[in-house]
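This follows on from our talk about sequence and fold. I would like you to pick a protein and set down its sequence and fold. Go ahead and set the record down below:
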Amino acid sequence: MRYIRLIYSIALGAILLMGVHAFRAHHATAGAVAFGVFEGTSPGVVDARPFLQIPLTDKCDFIKWKLTFLPDKQAGTSSTFKLEQEYGYYPDNRTNKTLGKATIEGRWEKDRGIKSNPDAVVYRLTAGEHTISFLQLDNNLLHLLNTDKGLMNGDGGQGFTLSRTDKAIPPTSIFQTSQANASFSSGVKDTVINFIGRTPCAAVSKEMNMAKPSDCFKLKWALKLYQDPVTFKPTTYQLNRVYRERNQMEGIWSVVKGAAADPNAVIYKLDAFDHKYTLYMMKGGDSTLFFLDQQRNLLVGNNEFCYTLNRRRL
C-alpha cells in the first residue's frame, strides 16, 4: 500500500509540474516588460509622426528607435518610458541623411487585443495627447501597431520590430510539440505569397546550417510561398538569400501550430529539398513573418535589423 501511495504521489507531482510548464508556456508572451531597452530601425511612418515629433512636411525614409522602459521611483513598477528617435532619408542606396532627432517621454499601460488575436498583449505609450501601441511578441520583441491595431508592414529594407538590446531574456517557456494537420492553411487566398526583408546574419545562418562570413552584418531575403490554385493549400517555396551573391533555395512548406511560447501560434515550416535545413517562421497577421529557432523561439535582432519579413503585394 505504501508503495502504491508513493507511485501515486510521484505521478501527481509530475502532472502538476507539467501543468505549471504548460501555463508558463501559454502565458509567456503575457509577462510584464522588464526594465530595459528596445531598439530598431524602421521605414518612415505617417500616423505616428505627431507622437514622434516628426513634421509631416519632412521627407522620412527611416526612423531609428531607442525605447527605454523606466522604473517608477514611487510605485517601483515599469510605468514610464523614454523614446529617443532619429529620422531622415536615403539620398542613395548606400547613404542615409539625418534630418532630425527627438526625445519623447511619457507613460505606458498594458492593454489587450489586436485584429488577429483578442488575447494579445499590447503596450500603449502616451505622451501628451498622442499615443502609439506595440504588440508584445515575447519578452525580447515588440512590434509597432497601426491605428486599426494591425501589425505595421515594413518593406525590403526594414521592419517595425524592436529588439531588446540591453540583455535578452532567455525563454521561460518549454518546447511545444508542433501540431500538424492537413486542414491547416495560411488563410491567404493567393496562389503566390511574397515576403521580403533584411535581417542580421548570425542567428538565422546558424538555424539554416550555413557558414556566416566574418564581415556579414545583414542578409537580404525574398521568399515566395506557392499554394494550390484551387484549395490554397501550401505546396512549394522559393527562398532567395543575398549576401554578396544570390543563394536560391527551394523546398516544400506546410502550416503547423505551436511556438515555444504559444501553442496556438501559426507556424510556416519550410523543408529544403536537399534536407539541409528546416526553417520555422511565425505568422503575424497576413503581412508579417518572424524567424524562429529550432525550438521555435523568436530570434532577436539588433538596433539596425530585425528577424522579420514583410509581405510584398505585386
